[in-house]
Amino acid sequence: MRLTRVIRITTLLLACVALPARAQSDGADTPPEAATGRVTKHLVTAKRHMVVAADPLAAEAGRAMLRAGGNALDAAIAVQMVLNMVEPQSSGIGGGGFLIHYDAKTRRMAAWDGRETAPAAATPERFLVDGKPLRFGDAVASGLSVGVPGVLAMLEAAHRAHGRLPWQALFAPALRLADDGFPVSQRLAELIASDTLLSKNTAARALFHHPDGTPLRAGETLNNPELGRVLRTISREGAKAFYQGDIAADIVAAVHAHMRPGDMTVQDIAAYQPRRREVLCSVYRTQHICGMPPPSSGTATIAMMLAMLERFPLAKMKPGSLEAVHLFSEAGRLAYADRDRYLADPDFVTPPLAQLLDRNYLARRSALIRDDRSLGTAPPGDFAGAQAFGDDHTAALPSTTQISVVDDDGNAVSFTSSVESAFGSRILVRGFLLNNQLTDFSLLPSSNGMPAANRVEPGKRPRSSMAPTLVFDAQNRLRYVLGSPGGSMIINYVAKTLVGLIDWKLDAQQAADLPNFGSRNRTTELEAGTAAEDLAPQLRARGHAVRVLPMSSGVHVIAITPGKGLSGGADPRREGVALGD
What residues are labeled active site? Predict the structure, then answer.
């Protein structure tokens, strides 16, 4: 009976999902943007349900699940499987992620932790050679950087708790692409062409390049039958097919075969367990901001920033104005200082979250912000009785992907997924790329004579900046579903978007369009080619050390307006779209 149901649903989904072309309808816009460019996108509205994802083919897959009677979690899983095919540089089954689920019937949230773990043989000196850290690029493209992948185990556990459609049905769109191939997007083509490390892996070179060594071009068909066979097996047998047996053995073999080998074992992979954690919430103005607790530092750091900004009349300031950017950057310095000192995997350290998020403490931190002068580099706070650690300025590389979904019943998912840097470790196994998430650990195990909270340890999860976020109003009604890729800049991207939505009353697309700016307690960073760049001289006059650079966020927002339905916005810097009915 169950098999018959799976076949019927899969047949329906294949009929719904016509995926051979990159037609962009229902809110997708003019042509796909370049890897560092922008394209004008328009607000998309819907009455029943909505998906915002980083590729039109993936968004269509999620919408097909919703049209077939699936829920938000079902749609998010289908989107992730297609993204593994069409956006392999950002996420996939060789990586990890964090997911926030909201059940509209019970009004309960769940935080799902699918972060990768360090192998049992890992030591704090993992990335040291003769007492000095490896060059970051050498650490990234190595077997040492690969953590035990967590996203599949996490998604399966979340599906058992919240899913509606059969697990096997969720793979139908991705398997269709595996069988038929798909056209390479402009962004993927540019990233393949510009990545000097990818072609050094024999399997990756064979997948992403022509036999003569030239990279695949936009519009050419990419076929990945190996990944199709892996996904078909997982769809039938569940995640255990990935964590036990031949696939796990091949992962280990690839990690050990690298010129700078890692030490992962099949036992490490078989032992992986996702975590269901308590959602972390704070209040900004009258809104409840909810997301992931550690080992992600995203939600806690955003909460600190917003609390420090609350005393300032941001609503009276023009979006992206000098005053707003100055204050936002100063709050970022103070919040990142505490993030770098105290936040890490709570199974190994005890982050002083209650103290960091205490309103009186944050009021004192906010009082350090001057209207006319930058702090420069802010010191971390000091807590009596809290475990002291050395500062850690490890910065995650900008890649990753964001999936935002609301279904017919009002259930919601915000899911940030990653293989870390673009193309992860560049190690390809059976058609999927392995992450390089262990470079999110501190490369130096100690500083200032104290151990780093985020140092490498066996079985530990590296600190993340991912910040999948749900926002509720004063009546506890879900109002926004959002998140972003972008490495350690994610915190600023999401916090800026929240200020845009809450203080500046922007719609979902306008908030996603905002120029990027902020500080991670070093320079003040301004997005090149935007109005933010024009503020550099005035910020320098206030004592800011300014850096202008491309900032390729990927903010995906769904807004829920009581009585009016859904509206969605996709970041203009990437190829994402909002689709809804």
Answer: 400
